[in-house]
């Protein structure tokens, strides 16, 4: 795989790039502003993962993620440089990537997740040669479900009571989706 440490994906409102260590405090502060929601809907948002130390530990894993074929991305507002969104591509299998997102509080509900996910998928299919991109949401996360549907993913199934919510341990259904390269090309010729 090519080296993507210096990749920049530009959208109308965002600059998406691999996270840098010096951004850890800004990303961590944004994470803590929406931590309760992240604990409801993200599989990684366990108690203690919102500390600055945990964010720094995560940042230290980025070279290994890149070496393994994954591409963590952070999106910054092109207008003012503020942190907006976390997204990326996690290589699951040969040519199959998983994606997701979360958005900073001041940018929620303004289409940034859709914009970032679209750009990320475009990069996956056009630059990485992805065969497919998968995504999921947990039961009750209607905002994420609407974004996934708007992006044109196809539902592949539901894993019942498969995710223990980080906030309180309640078991949630996981709704799974996929978009193949062919579907992407039909949607975005």
What do these coordinates show?
This protein is α+β, with helices and mostly antiparallel strands and 189 residues long. The chain has seven helices and nine strands. Strands 1, 2, 3, 4, 5, 6, 7, 8 and 9 form a nine-stranded mixed β-sheet that branches. Helix 5 crosses helix 6 (142-151). The mean pLDDT is 94.
Order of H and E elements: EEHHHHEEEEHEHEEH
Helix content: 25-40%
Can you give the mean pLDDT?
Answer: 94
| Biggest sheet record | 9 strands, mixed
- What is the number of helical segments per DSSP (H or I, 4+ residues)? 7
Runs in which pLDDT lies below 50 for 5 or more consecutive residues are: none
Whole-Å distance between the termini? 25 Å
DSSP E strands, number: 9
Quote the beta fraction. Answer: 25-35%
- What structural class do you assign from the helix and strand content? alpha+beta
Note the overall shape.
Answer: globular
**Integer-rounded radius of gyration:** 16 Å
